[in-house]
Amino acid sequence: MDSEKDLSAHEPLPTNALRENASETAQNLTHDGNPRIQFTPAAKPDRTRRISDDEDVLTFVAPVIRRRQSVASIPQVISEKEKDRRKREKELEEKNVNIDEHLMAHQDVAERYKTRINMEKPGESFGLSSQQAEQWLHEHGPNVLTPPKKRHPFFKFLKCLSSLFNVLLIVAGILEYVLLATGFKENLQNTYLGAILIMVAHINAFIEFYQQQRSQALLESFLNMIPAKCMCFRDGKMAQLEASSLVPGDVVFVRMGDKTPADILVFSASDCKVDNSSLTGESEPQERTRDNDMENPLEASNVMFNSALVVSGEAYGIVIRTGDSTVLGQIAYLTAGEEKTTSPLTHEIDNFVKIIATIAIVTAIIFFGIAFPVNNNKVSLALNFACGIFVAWVPQGLPATVTMLLTIAAKRMASQNVLVKDLQGVETLGAITLLATDKTGTLTRNQMTAANIWTCGELYEASNRAGAEKDVAGPDKPGVIDILHISALCSRAKFDRTDVPVKEREVLGDATESGLIRYAAEQLSNFDILSEYPKVFELPFNSYTKWHMSIHKKPHASGPLTLYIKGAPERVWRLCDRILTGPDGECVELTDDCKNAYDETYEHMASRGHRVLGFAEMLLSGDQYPEDFAFDKKAKNYPLGGFIFVGLASLEDPPKHGVREAIGRCRAAGIKVIMVTGDHPLTAEAIGRKINLVLSDTKAMVAKRKGRPLEQIAEDEFKAIVVHGEQIDNLTDAEWDNIFWKDEIIFARTSPKHKLEIVRRAQSMGHIVGVTGDGVNDSPALKKANLGIAMNMSGSDVSKEAASMILLDDNFASTVRGIEEGRLIFVNLKKSIQYTLSHITPEVVPNLLYVIVPIPLPLSAILILVIDLGFELIAALSFAWDPPETEEGLMKLPPRKPVTPETSNIFRRRALRRTRSRFDEEAGVVISPESLTKMQKFLHNGRQLFTKEYWRDKMENTGAEVLVDGPLLSWAYLEIGMIEAVGALTSYFVVMYRRGISPHDAHIMQKGAGSPTNYWTKDAKSYNGIDGPTQVNILAEAQSMYYWSVMTMQMFNLFACKTRLTLPFGKYMFANHATFYCIVAGAALAAFIIYTPGVEVVFKTTRSLLPLYWLVPMAFGFVLIGYATLRMIIRRKTRPVKWNPEIQGLQMYPTIRTLRSMSSRSI
């Protein structure tokens, strides 16, 4: 929620130097305002107010600079969904009439809407007649926002259930029941397997469905912002009506505590102020009057927006927009039009599932055909084998593992003040490459604090702080006591109570006056005694005079009354003819030297991004103004000149504690942090330079340093840029790209639509975008971003609903902790998946040997499921508690999907293929394809699979690290997987050999003279003196050993998968105690399945397995650790870790130092 107010109490700077500097950086601006949010239809030469000729005003405008062609040669590629969205927006823009009523006379507006108002006595306005209102209601519709389209929860659940992974599990489960038809008795145990597979699919779907339901209330929260009832004039009578019945032309009355029921034009107001913070980003209450001097309706002082809270006073107005046509309605439309971006983790898991599904289906079909002749054309055995292959390939526990790991990480993040609404957001936060943050309330405290004081020719620091270059102001300094008294008395802010110390009190008032009165209370030991100087007359601050005057019963040598005034320095300076020079009221006439000193100090304060106020006083003569003098606003019998200029005070919204180091850590981690604010560009840049966000020179600074014209500065000569919101609508694709290739970026004076466009443009380059926001106006960008981050304490309900994550303490530093946690969970997820997939090969290989060789089946389908959902699931969870391998390593690595000109071109080239567009290199434009039917699109996508371009794009190295990549699959399937398969088969045959059956005998018995069922059943014929029941027991013991061997070697693999930067031994192996707990739990489960009486009936295991056999898989486990060590040593030499380069100039010391730390440094 960022302030829309300018510096210096919202007056521009006065000096010629600043005028020249601004004219260099702000030439020939064309303002094409946002037609849906800014409502400014015509191009204008600048965005200044219409003011009188005698005012001294600097016009701050921003240049539209033509940049060179972007580094990335392919421009933004627009998908069909994006085209449809733009078409809908354009249709809505044509439907809605732009707001221009704020520039019209009130009676002209009344005539437009055929209503009657009374300017002199607004309470006697006639308004619309009932017949008119009914007609307008039929034409415009009710004053409500269009509710979001709802889908029945059952169909949402079916959609979740129909995901590819869940379909695989359901199909596998159904096939297990199909086997009953081929042999009921032999396949009865498979009914347990089928039920478990189907149940797992439904559990996965329910978890996803539950996550979606939690975010359902987003658009409904907009509806709650509109008040239910309002006071309206109909037929000359004021009555309380339903807000939904309001129509354009209705005359309404609002007062303190009310919510504005529609967009209204004010024609009468009394001390009315509204809180527009959630709509426009203005942090302070905005005054509303009948008069207006602003061109932009968002800044107009005579327009009140739908749902804005009236914080003081009252007003009468004409309804000019209702329902979806209001500003609130259009923000809701922007939010509804944005689809939630799929998280990188979801996308990568989907790709992995497609690969696994393809492999599983193809191998199952192939080996079903092979099994037919091998098994004497017996359908039951061939189908059973195909099901076993299919089940073996599918890692049933993977969705549950991922979900539980993310849940554990989310709970850990919540303890660090980061609340995750969407579990996928945990990992997304660690993957972001660009973080767009607002200023006020996120980077800064949204609490104005006194910074500098200039009085009696001396410039002071307002308080004692680290790095202070000037003396600290105190009541004993000349002139300071006067500024403190003016700050305390000439103010509408006040403390909520006086019976507690000042530091424990809350200030009631706007941000600027609150900052001044708190500073005065801290400096004055007798602050509460100032109440003895009552206020006898007051002229509040308003947008016309831009100063605040008060007269108090404060006696002095010349009389009983003292006049104080504060406000915009230029306005206050014009009312003065003398300036304070001494502690006892000594003053001199204003001279050119005084003016130069004033200008120099003012420029210094404003250039630091401070808000500057001027202070003056007059000791009223008792002869002219006795104690009982009656001041009158209408008679204007109060002084309007001849004041004594006391000095200047500057206030700043200081950065939050820890923000500087947090942004520094983000940048050191390779994340681009940009500021998107509604504040003034100078203020934004000044704050940015304090918090590590901007370190380099901007184009204007380079031009000034090199003494060259601005237009001669090339793009590669500067790395920082400040973009004014008025430029955004006119930027070309190349200009957008050139902005995002800068290292340091600030967008100032932005609207909600601008913020949304910034997110879209960054995503079109391949950025994974995180956005922070707290207002209703932020909700479209929060929803569109890969990760929306809302504020808990200052955030609106709408922004919290739109976001995927909420900062509980509103502190940006919490985001950095979340990023580190997100990176850690990605590393741990990858290790967990690497570990989990390693057992697939020792599950698939025995099924293949069962058919091809053949040999007795070493591992049944039910034992495969026990591995996947038993020990493996427990052990895989232990990675959730793995700490980082090195203390700072994670935050010194680049993002896992870095964005460079090369990767951006790859990203857009793939977008070209998806959208069937082509890039004309000569013209530098993307040419969209002709419209195709669904069948044509399907055939086109099918043909793409057989094109060279498709596979080149698939295989092209983007430099990104994905969750499941080639090295991981190689480790799991070809390297560790094969070692485990060999080890398990060795253990399997050792058991058989010890029971009198050699591998050759096992092959002969399985192949048989006729049907394979002649052996390994209870009624089988004897082989070498081994009867049928003994054969069954031997096979059960061998299968139990195979199962136990996979579990044992996976224990060693658990440690082998832990490291990416170091060798798999040392103290890091013992850093996670949960690993050992999970090993014990998993081993206990395996022992329960093998050695518990009665359980062998279900799993076909045996209790006769000797512990002596455990030594065989343990030996292979040590071989596995040795191989992992050798692999790591070779990988270090061939593919060393690439760390981020150091960024010169980062200030990594605390944003705020305590006095104690400062004093300790000086000792």
UniProtKB/TrEMBL annotation:
Protein name as annotated: Cation-transporting P-type ATPase N-terminal domain-containing protein
Annotated segments matching region Disordered: 1-49
Membrane topology: Multi-pass membrane protein
Domain Cation-transporting P-type ATPase N-terminal: 100-181
Pfam families in UniProt: Cation_ATPase, Cation_ATPase_C, Cation_ATPase_N, E1-E2_ATPase
Coiled-coil regions listed in the entry: none
Cellular compartment(s): Cell membrane
One of the record's GO molecular function terms: ATP hydrolysis activity
PROSITE patterns, per the entry: ATPASE_E1_E2
Keyword hit for DNA-binding: no
Biological process terms in GO annotation: intracellular potassium ion homeostasis; intracellular sodium ion homeostasis; potassium ion import across plasma membrane; proton transmembrane transport; sodium ion export across plasma membrane
Transmembrane regions listed in the UniProt entry: 157-180, 192-210, 355-375, 381-406, 848-881, 971-991, 1074-1094, 1106-1126
InterPro entries membership: ATPase_P-typ_cation-transptr_C (IPR006068), ATPase_P-typ_cation-transptr_N (IPR004014), ATPase_P-typ_cyto_dom_N (IPR023299), ATPase_P-typ_P_site (IPR018303), ATPase_P-typ_TM_dom_sf (IPR023298), ATPase_P-typ_transduc_dom_A_sf (IPR008250), ATPase_P-type_domA (IPR059000), Cation_transp_ATPase_P-type (IPR050510)
Gene Ontology cellular-component terms listed: plasma membrane
Keywords: ATP-binding, Cell membrane, Membrane, Nucleotide-binding, Translocase, Transmembrane, Transmembrane helix
Organism of origin: Trichoglossum hirsutum
Domain of life: Eukaryota
